[in-house]
Write a structure and sequence with these properties.
This is Methyltransferase. It holds the Pfam family Methyltransf_23. InterPro entries: SAM-dependent_MTases_sf. By secondary structure, the chain is an alpha/beta fold. The protein has 2 domains: 210 residues, 3-Layer(aba) Sandwich (Rossmann fold); 43 residues. It contains 13 helices and 15 strands.
């Protein structure tokens, strides 16, 4: 069931257990407390299609697609400074650009951009018309991808990718955490978690995470009853560290090491090091969880239209088979893998 209204419970939290099974479309995002029906699961979730990773080769799967259309901000920066934008700077630019879209009142923005487009037609200025039309296309695509389809957060899909882990009160390390969404989703699925989020851009902690809605509901498990329960950001134990992953002081002390959209930002020569970042912090028997954007037509369209928002950094789109081969060849056994609307996901353990 879908609604545009906000429910307010007696303790001020807008969603409670009686709302499980429902979804709501809000001005900036969708909230979704539904579970998949069998039909939806079979349509939207594809799991464990590779039976023997040792038999797979790069000749079989090919290499990922490098996204080469960079943002205008990056191009202007490099023209001004006469050098390639450094990775840390590109990450700062990306975080600010991306966050601005998460906090938009999308319906009002769509109306405004449409009005600006009609005004541009009166100017008879081709460049102005082209720019206004591009703005209309971007906000329409963002509305569809993030609000309507819920492809960015995709809570039902992420739960399908992350389910079935043998952990109790886990310690979770989230590498490149940004706003921390998937760390909190894991915290809801595996209650009693202690989540350590890490990002080397303080904007992620101070703005992206800080401004993540306190009223956003995560569907998880109630350990007392075994039934489903609604959690909020304030229900989790979270430490947020601003640091370079390479400088973290931790040993092998985490049950889960998570990264979301990290591996695809590194060319092949650096991917072994990225996989080592996951391994070095895992307890024996712990789980590395990774997601990356899928290489599919809708993703290629998205990163083309939204280049000024998304493409400040090196980026690849890949299949789950390509992603899994990187994971497997770098010393991990893949326990489960699959893809959802726009993401690949892998759960692995170090060999």
């Amino acid at each position: 069931m879908e609604t545009n209204s906000i429910w307010v419970s007696k303790d001020g939290k807008p969603f409670i257990e009686e709302h499980i099974g429902r979804t709501a479309l809000l001005p900036s995002h969708r909230v979704d407390l539904r579970n998949f029906t069998e039909r939806e699961y079979n349509k939207l979730v594809k799991m464990d299609r590779v039976k023997d990773w040792s038999s797979l080769s790069w000749k079989d799967v090919g290499k990922p697609l490098e996204v080469k259309k960079y943002s205008n901000d990056r191009k202007q920066y490099e023209e001004s400074y006469g050098e390639e934008m450094k990775p840390f700077t590109s990450w700062q630019y990306f975080n600010k650009a991306f966050h601005e879209w998460f906090v938009k009142d999308v319906p009002n923005e769509m109306k405004e951009q449409k009005n600006q487009f009609f005004k541009s037609l009166k100017s008879f200025n081709p460049q102005q018309i082209k720019s206004a039309l591009g703005d209309v296309a971007k906000i329409q695509l963002w509305n569809y991808a993030h609000r309507i389809q819920d492809g960015v957060w995709d809570p039902r899909g992420k739960r399908a990718l992350f389910e079935g882990l043998d952990v109790t009160n886990p310690r979770i390390l989230f590498l490149g955490a940004a706003e921390g969404y998937e760390g909190m989703q894991l915290g809801a699925m595996y209650p009693g978690a202690h989540i350590t989020m890490v990002d080397y851009d303080d904007y992620c902690r101070n703005t992206r995470f800080e401004e993540f809605p306190d009223t956003y509901p995560f569907l998880g498990e109630n350990p007392s009853t075994g039934q489903q329960k609604v959690y909020y950001k304030g229900d989790f134990i979270i430490d947020y560290i601003v640091n370079d992953i390479r400088n973290l002081p931790f040993g092998k002390e985490f049950d889960i090491v998570l990264s979301v959209g990290l591996l695809e930002h590194f060319p092949d020569g650096y991917k072994p090091e990225v996989m080592d970042w996951h391994r070095k912090f895992l307890k024996p028997g712990g789980y590395a969880i990774l997601t990356t954007p899928r290489n599919q037509l809708r993703s290629r369209l998205y990163y083309n239209v939204m280049a000024d928002v998304m493409n400040h950094t090196y980026r690849e789109l890949m299949t789950v088979e390509q992603m899994g081969l990187y994971v497997y060849e770098n010393g991990f056994d893949i326990k489960q893998h699959g893809f959802i609307k726009v993401h690949n996901g892998i759960v692995a353990q170090s060999r």
